[in-house]
Write a structure and sequence with these properties.
Layout (H helix, E strand, L loop, with lengths): L4 H18 L1 H11 L6 H19 L4 H11 L12 E3 L2 H7 L3 E3 L7 H21 L1
Antiparallel strand pairs: 1-2
């Protein structure tokens, strides 16, 4: 069943409200993109969902093993050992701001269930769009 333009806009607003509440940094970054979205509500929601999915994929721990494999297949350490972790070391100012000296990417949140839900929603909307054509 096709959704109305108002329903697409309601979904978009709800997603933006949840992002503002639970991931304000993501919401802020995506706010800049929102002005460039097309006026058609369905296409607008599809593009926004795509941006959200790509953003969370880069921040989710489920990508960590893939990144390590990619690095180990293309980079060798001086000792010939494989890379076992990726840590970000902060400057003294950043360490004071974040309250930590370094961050191991293995500790990224696992957003895979959230991403699966977003992808399911996106696929449904895209199917709806193709049914209209």
């Amino acid at each position: 069943m096709a959704l109305t333009d108002d329903e697409y806009l309601d979904i978009l607003r709800h997603l933006q409200e949840r992002l503002r509440e639970f991931a304000p940094d993501v919401f802020e970054n995506l706010s800049e993109i929102t002005v460039d979205l097309p006026p058609n509500p369905q296409t607008r929601l599809i593009r926004y969902l795509g941006f959200v999915i790509r953003t969370f994929k880069t921040r989710s721990s489920d990508t960590y093993p893939y990144i390590l494999d990619l690095l180990n297949n293309n980079i060798k350490t001086k000792e010939g050992n494989s890379i076992e972790s990726i840590k970000i070391s902060f400057t003294p100012e950043e360490a004071q701001l974040y309250g930590i000296d370094e961050f191991d990417l293995v500790n990224l949140p696992d957003d895979s269930a959230f991403l699966d839900d977003l992808i399911t929603i996106l696929n449904s909307i895209q199917e709806d769009e193709s049914d209209k054509s």
